[in-house]
């Protein structure tokens, strides 16, 4: 409940209390008073009271004597002096006089004589009762009315102070309700600098504290600052992509976030954070660029001219990326065509890892893949053999794998086990090496037949070692060929 509502309830309660007080005045018969004659009646009663009090004062000694005679149990004064009212002393008597047994007190200024200071007498209980009986009902009603009036005035002053405080608080709340509040949200957009690019358009919808509907687009920088709203409840979302200085267009998140604006400089990043990712430039559409340019022109950029420049940069960046992708695809198609080989019985694709580093020759159904620029260094030779027939590789070669074509033929892959042969040849440990290789060639042969999974040094020192066993090296090459070459061998259409 708002402070203003509390203020209205308190005012209603105070008004009810005042009404009850006024009803009390009616019950003490103030209607018997005639305010037009009140001044005269008051003066007459003051005069009558003065005379009554004088007569009462004369009778007071008699009454006092009667009281003394009736109070046998009270001790009498040792001095036997009668009680004398102070105002009955002679004017010459000063405030200090000799007291029995005490001597004389210091004298005071003669101007302060007892007769000069009228001191009030304190009536006894009997006198008070007599005065109360002699007081007219009209006078008692006046006194009661005065007391009630004083109470009403005091209560009215307190109510006025409290009501003023409530009104001040209500005025503060009302003023804040009509004050624009700066808020900050969370945004993440890699590479975006709004000082050179455009700002991020944020769609805001909801209802402010006045109950008015809100639907507008506001703009924030790369730090999420720039939104100003009246207090209220709102829904935030990203309207479109900003445009970076280099033409980058971002993927717009589809999320929407509910927030409540309460105070100035409020940080809403914990409730509202938007991540704008950078897609592949070639996938950006004309619609995305046009939407980003529209919001940049309407408020995201410093001017319409700047928005136009940013739009051109976004278009150029997208077009360049599209052309690059097209070029790569065309080259890949050419490469695939160049890697594709065919014989009269089967076809295959040269592994991508080998492309550009090897060359081929073929004779009928036999295809040889050798090291580019050195036809005497075959890497693998493929031979188609009819089912039921045997296959024997060339001297120094090893069967590295086979692929069944499903048409009555099997293609066998054979060649040197270079991960074993090359280190043995370099070390000069074979009696009849197939060939000798320069170190660069040796390293390349090992890489081609193992897919770079091991270096030459690892193969030489670990897989082969000093024992000269080729099992580990052979398995390494056969496994690799089984993965990159043999699956591509298919029967000819």
Summarize the SSE layout with pairings:
Blueprint: H1 3-27, H2 38-70, H3 125-134, H4 137-177, E1 181-184, E2 186-189, E3 200-208, E4 213-220, E5 225-229, E6 232-238, E7 257-261, E8 266-267, E9 273-276, H5 286-300, H6 304-339, E10 340-342, E11 346-349, E12 358-363, E13 366-371, E14 374-386, E15 398-404, E16 409-415, H7 418-427, H8 439-450, H9 456-464, H10 471-484, E17 490-491
Parallel strand pairs: 1-8, 2-9
Antiparallel strand pairs: 1-5, 3-4, 3-6, 6-7, 10-11, 11-17, 12-13, 13-14, 14-16, 15-16
Helix pairs in contact: 1-4, 5-6, 7-8, 7-9
- Strand order in space, largest sheet: 12-13-14-16-15
Rounded to an integer, what's the Rg over CA atoms?
A: 58 Å
**What is the 3D shape?**
elongated
What composes the largest sheet?
Answer: 5 strands, antiparallel
What's the β-strand tally? 17
What is the helix/strand order?
Answer: HHHHEEEEEEEEEHHEEEEEEEHHHHE
Structural class: alpha+beta
Query: Helix content range of the residues, please?
Result: 40-55%
Q: Roughly what fraction of the amino acids lie in strands?
A: 15-25%
Low-confidence stretches: 28-117, 428-434
